[in-house]
Amino acid sequence: MWSTANMRGVPTTPSNSTSAEVCCAARGVCTYTHIASLGKVILGLDVALLTMNLGEVARFIIKPEYGYGVLGLAPKVEPNETLDYEIELVSFGKPLPKFPSQAELAESRKRQAEEDRKMLEDNPPATAFVHIFYGKDEWEVLVSAEDKIRINNHKVPLYLNRALCKIKLNKWADAEWDCDKAIEINNTLPKAHFRRSLVFLGKLNDELAKEDRKEFWVIDKATKFLVEAETSLQRAVALTEGVDDAQIVKTQIDLKRAKLTLQKYIKNYHEAEKKLYKDNIMDRLVADNKKKQASELQHELEHAFEDMPSLE
Fold it and tell me: Domain PPIase FKBP-type, which positions (predicted)?
């Protein structure tokens, strides 16, 4: 169950000799949303809220063992301090849903897969997004390790579907993240590595397009994208176990074309770099050297007969 409460808190010693706000950084009423049994607040507040009725205002004296214990909460709560809270239960919601049975999960997977397929067919990629309905807290606390494995395996096609949407939108960073998450769960899926290769091929083509537009681009960056694309595609080919796949073959051709283009641009860059070096440095050095030699020769000619006696 989640609840929203107004809370005013004062930690006290048994003699009530010291006090400080603990619910907010500033003094006054603190409004917060709380989900029971997730361990996000001290145990005393967790138990207190579960005993209250809607709209009730109650005062709770919480012993140290149900509060911050021997550690305290520096600098506001000293070790072994008793807490004094006034709480108003403003609202509450439904309890968290029970975890579905295996039959319900199977039906949900089937229904979700069909919805994903239809979404991709009937809608532009921008609207074809899949939502994961487990929050971080629920995932960590309520889901068993066995069920996490099952759910993660079910997430793989969702990540890959969303990656495909992002690829079609040229949102390479988002697509890379989805592919990496799918590979993190199961690194033996050819489709995951194949789509990751599409991501880096897209990044590489974007860099090459900058050359056509006469914009600045970085050779090392483009080379890195090429290596990542080749590595992922090779992994996808290896996992298909020699089975011909038209999409993989097409991507191999596209990647080879992009590689040749990159090599041509790199060659042009190095040639331009050499020409620039020759024009701006070597030719200048040669010209300066010629001027220096001519000046030295002129100086020698002018002073060649200085030591000879004059003719009378």
Answer: 39-93
Number of folded domains that form the chain: 3
What CA–CA distance (Å, rounded) separates 47 from 44? 5
* CB distance 162 to 142 below 8 Å: no
pLDDT of the residue at 94: 66
Q: Is residue 262 domain-shared with residue 168, that is, in the same domain?
A: yes
Kind plus residue range of the DSSP H or E element containing 85: strand 82-92
3-state class (DSSP) for residue 106: helix
End-to-end Cα separation, the chain, in angstroms? 125
- 253, pLDDT greater than 80: yes
Q: Which two tokens stand for residue 180?
A: 């990496």
The burial class, CB within 10 Å (0-12 / 13-18 / 19+), for 176 is: buried
Domain span at residue 123 reads 102-131
Take residue 196 and report the two structure tokens written for it: 């990751």
Q: Tell me how far apart the alpha carbons of residues 93 and 34 are, in angstroms, rounded to a whole number.
A: 10
Question: How far is residue 55's CA from residue 256's CA, in Å, rounded to a whole number?
Answer: 69
Amino acid present at 214: K
Judge whether 9 and 48 are in contact, CB under 8 Å.
no
33 forms bridges with which residues in the sheet?
4
Lowest mean pLDDT among 80-94, 121-135, 139-153: 121-135
Nearest alpha carbon to residue 33 among 89, 97, 107, 115: 89
Residue 291 scores a pLDDT above 80: no
> What tens digit of pLDDT does each residue of 50-72 get?
888 888 888 889 898 988 888 88
| CA dist., res. 197 & res. 234, Å (int) | 9
Is the residue at 276 inside a domain?
A: no
Q: Are residues 159 and 86 in the same domain?
A: no
Q: 88 forms bridges with which residues in the sheet?
A: 6, 57
Query: In whole angstroms, what is the distance from residue 114 CA to residue 121 CA?
Result: 11
